[in-house]
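hey m, so remember when u said the C-alpha cells were messed up on ur end? i reran from scratch. heres the input so u can diff it against urs
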Amino acid sequence: LNRVLQPGAPADGVSESLELLLLLARAGGSALSRVQGAVREANAIPMLTQLMQSEDGGVRQLAMRAVSELSAGDARSTDVLRESGGVVLLSESLLSPDDGAALQAVSTIAHMSASAAHVQSIVENKCLAPLLQLLTHRSAPVRAEAEVAFSNLARSGAINAMLMQDPAACRHLVALLRRSGGVMQAQAAIAIAGIAADARAR
C-alpha cells in the first residue's frame, strides 16, 4: 500500500489502487473494517492527503473520495486526516476557479458531512463560508453538492457552532436567505434564528 500510493508513483497504478480501496470500502461490514485497519497500519491517510494535491485530476478525485470513505466512522483515521491537513486542503479547494476542482472538494465535503465523525473537522476548518458561497455557484453540479453538505450540517446541528467559529459566514447565510427558496431558505432561516437566540453571538 505504501509503495503504490507514493505521490511519485505512476498515475495509472495509483488510480487502480485507489479504485480497489474504494471498491473494498463500499462492500461495507467486515470488508470495510479490514480495509480501514490496513490503512491505519500503513499510515496511508497522510499519503492520501498528499495525493489530494496531485496534478492528475483523476488521482486527485479518487484520493479525496478515498479519504472521505476510509476515515468515516474511524476516529483514529479522522484524527490523522485533520492532523495531516486534509480538511484544510478541501476547504481551500472549495473556491477554486477551476469548476472541476471545486466540484471534487465540495463532493468530498458533502460525503464527509453525513458522518458525525467528520462534522467537527468541517467546523474547525472554517468550511462554512466557502460552502455557503457555492450555493449560488454558476455550476449546477457544484450547487447541488453544496446543498447536500449544507443540509447535512444543518441536520447535525453544526451550523451554529460553525458560525461561532467563522462569524464572516453570517453574511453569506443572510444572502442565502434573500436569494434562495424552499428547503435552503428554511434551513438558513433556522440557522439565523438559532444564532439570534444564542447569547454568545450577541
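this time it looks ok to me. The chain has a mean pLDDT of 80. if urs says something different then somethings off w ur setup not the seq
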